[in-house]
């Protein structure tokens, strides 16, 4: 299958999940994350899930980060430039849905990508080599390319990996991908 076909197939798989399944699987993913050697950093980037796309609920991961007293960073999509801007998530951070249904900070303290230690990456599909397929706009590949070379990229997925996915030179591979039952290291 090509990337477009894989996106369609994985969107359908996600849409078939009940809300209760998403919550249970998201909690299992958070519990798996605790086993990773990623907890010595300071700045942790996390995506806020698009509910209509039935993405992994990252609230459980955020609770872990707060419990470990980590600085949580969230992004705002700049569709005109294809870039993400990153903001420190604080108690007074106002989150609003964009016109695309993405929960985003209105503004705040901007954090450069180079400062981030761990990035939790949304995806539709991943493979056994750490390649991933997102929604196809390239936001995360451009973002990950700006990060410190020591930063760790951690995908989260409800589903096990494909054997192999089509990839391009601009695709940035993951270091880990967490699924409900297993964590994959690349």
UniProtKB/TrEMBL annotation:
InterPro entries: FTHF_cligase, FTHF_cligase-like_sf, NagB/RpiA_transferase-like. Its EC number is 6.3.3.2. SUPFAM superfamilies: NagB/RpiA/CoA transferase-like. Keywords: ATP-binding, Ligase, Magnesium, Metal-binding, Nucleotide-binding. Its cofactor is Mg(2+). It holds the Pfam family 5-FTHF_cyc-lig. GO terms for biological process: folic acid-containing compound biosynthetic process; tetrahydrofolate interconversion. This is 5-formyltetrahydrofolate cyclo-ligase.
